[in-house]
């Protein structure tokens, strides 16, 4: 069986925890898109980890963890994470990296940084991880696939020369920065070649063979539906498809292969970076939720930046579930809301006097104002609950209300950061 675990919001929904938990019954866990620009925070018996490149199945010895062709690979970040696992006593994972994944080069990170600087107040809020420049080179056919590290060095040198010819005029005349050096790039590629040699493989062949053998596979998405290049809030999106549908392309399996799509939805809203955010809170109200949220507060696992926070947005979440093709929902980070007397839920937008009950086109979002339905808060700690019946009725009512609003069965409820803090639930729709 193949299950996709993907985000229904802006990212930071807790996909890593769900993947880590479900990986106990999986043979393969696969990253199929994105790069090191977002982190999956996991708390388990080994400690607390923020994974940016490694799949969240690395804590299960029986799992083969795959980085698929749809990923852009930051080799230095990968090495760093493997060392962190080793230092924490985690057994070395069985890691397979697709020959077809693209390499994030140091010059991609430079271009990402320089472009954000150039745009100034109009910047995208990039993590400056080189993701957009890397994907841009991929589709311009001047990127490097992992497998190309092992071709003749003369062929690599020709490619490097072409890259310098294309990029150095931009560096010199647009950004007014130092130009690229061919030898430096060659040395970087040779270093990557040796570091990746133990891991490279034909991931698509491995996964298709596993599917034919009836093995359990998890496809682990990065970020959420509202950051998808096509269906997200453009242009404040990421540079890859965050949707489950891309899981087939980014892992190299058939479109018919996915059996379940578990969409992870946060019990309130949060986002990192610029762009419209209709239910956003500000000032002391935002800081209080940010301080209480997540495990240690709402701060980006990659950047450390304070996340923007707001109340649950039913329109955005319903749209996210629709785009993901959700068959079930895992509702996460419910526990921080226990301090509120009443909990507003955004159930409509008002745009220029018109009421929207469905998520509108992106160009209207900057003018949208939230319309709230207020629910009674539960005013107690729920982190010790192990069964849905142990939750306060007000908390159960909140879950039921969200389920009805998004129109997808909620089968799991996360009430704390630890692997064990997850409640299975029988849906009511």
Could you characterize the architecture of this molecule?
The protein is α/β, with parallel strands linked by helices. The chain contains eleven helices and 20 strands. The strands form five sheets. A ten-stranded mixed beta sheet has the order 9-7-5-2-10-1-11-15-19-20, sandwiched between helices. Strands 14, 16, 17 and 18 form a four-stranded mixed beta sheet that branches. The radius of gyration is 22 Å and the shape is globular.
Could you estimate the helical fraction of the residues in percent?
25-40%
Number of strands: 20
Strand content: 15-25%
Report the biggest beta sheet as strand number plus sense, adding barrel if it closes.
10 strands, mixed
Concise synopsis of the structure shown:
The protein is α/β, with parallel strands linked by helices and 429 residues long. 31% of the residues lie in helices and 22% in strands.
